[in-house]
Amino acid sequence: FSYYADKKTNINRSYLLSALIYLSATSLIILPTITVLGLDVAKNAFNPYFSYTRQVHGYDVIQRVQAINALAWFPGLIFKLSLNIFLGCHILSGVFKTKSHKPFILPFCIAGFVTVMLPGLNKVNTLLELASDSVFPWIVLPFTVGLPLIMVLVYLLRKKKIDKVLAKKKARASVLDSEEI
Asked: What does pTM read for this prediction?
């Protein structure tokens, strides 16, 4: 999404701020869950935070916190799904050099719907097997390590050309800024 960032935005500062916000939000979920349920229960539960919120009671004032958790969880999932679909369509429009990302929305949504509706994925055993330690790391590893590593290697191989293009854009931007003054 850096394409949509303002030119005056400090990318390093924005990245650091977003990482700190993510870390603090994740800590607000993980720390109470581990302290209330314990490490063994939190590791083996399917959704430990939801189990934690079912345990929270504060006299007569704070009860049924899991309902608030579920109410926040569903719109969050919809937002995350919408963001991922937009990002995927935006990337595909850049790959195929189209003017808009709109032609990719319907095929992207249909592919996601068909994937979700596959009969084998509706079974709890399949989900547990995919989430197990023998399968899940091999699914996540290429996206968390492999893809960023490939991106860094491509950047390093094309660094000179990229630096030239950035220098030209910076020079053009400074000329435009000086003309406005």
From this structure: 0.55
Q: How far apart are CA 29 and CA 101, in angstroms?
A: 35
Residue corresponding to tokens 């399968």: 135
Q: Could you give phi then psi for residue 59, rounded to 5 degrees? A: 55, -135
Q: DSSP letters of 82-149?
A: HHHHHHHHHHHHHHTT-S-SGGGHHHHHHHHHHHHT-GGGGSHHHHHHHTSTTTHHHHHHIIIIIHHH
Structure tokens given for 153: 């290697």
Are 103 and 97 in contact by the 8 Å Cβ rule? The answer is no
The count of C-alpha atoms lying within 13 angstroms of the C-alpha of 21, restricted to the half-sphere facing its C-beta, is 6
How many whole angstroms separate alpha carbon 131 and alpha carbon 124? 10
The pLDDT > 70 percentage for the chain reads 86
Q: What is the C-alpha to C-alpha distance for residues 20 and 39, in angstroms, rounded to an integer?
A: 24
The pLDDT value recorded for residue 133 is 78
pLDDT tens-digit profile of 106-163? 998 898 888 777 776 666 777 777 777 787 788 888 888 888 888 888 888 888 887 8
